[in-house]
Amino acid sequence: MTAAKTELVAAGGIASSVSGGGTGVSTVSFTLTKQDDAERLVEKLFKTSLIADAQILSNSYERFYMKYKREASDDKLVKVKLITADNKVASLIQYVKENNLSINKDIPTDILSV
Predict the structure, then answer these.
(1) How far apart are alpha carbons 21 and 110 in whole angstroms?
(2) Angstrom distance (rounded) from CA 111 to CA 96
């Protein structure tokens, strides 16, 4: 491991970012309650140049979560999958959390970035 990689890892970073091994592309996915909300949000994300590609899957997804120490679920959800640059992931997640009217405030968001 080179000195630069060692310093980055010690600082809590990822060594592959120094060596250029990353692709520079990330996938972000989450669920929404309404197809219309998903389409409006994706349109806004394209206008702000936060995403390069989007896919809205309306296959009646079901989500399980804990609410007041009991298992709860939502069904008939819409899954949204987005493609963005690695350097835009944080801004994208923040934008989705702030501009998504479909998120129930009692339920934590299920945003996943890979």
Answers:
(1) 28
(2) 9
The residue extents of the domains of the chain are 23-113
pLDDT in tens, 41-50: 999 999 999 9
- The single-letter DSSP state of residue 102 is T
CB 78 within 8 A of CB 56: yes
Phi, psi (degrees; rounded to nearest 5) at 36 = -60, -40
Task: Identify the CATH class of 23-113.
Answer: alpha beta
- What SS3 state is found at 91? helix
Q: What is the pLDDT of residues 73-87, one digit of tens each?
A: 777 788 899 999 999
Tokens of 87: 């350097």
pTM assigned to the model = 0.68
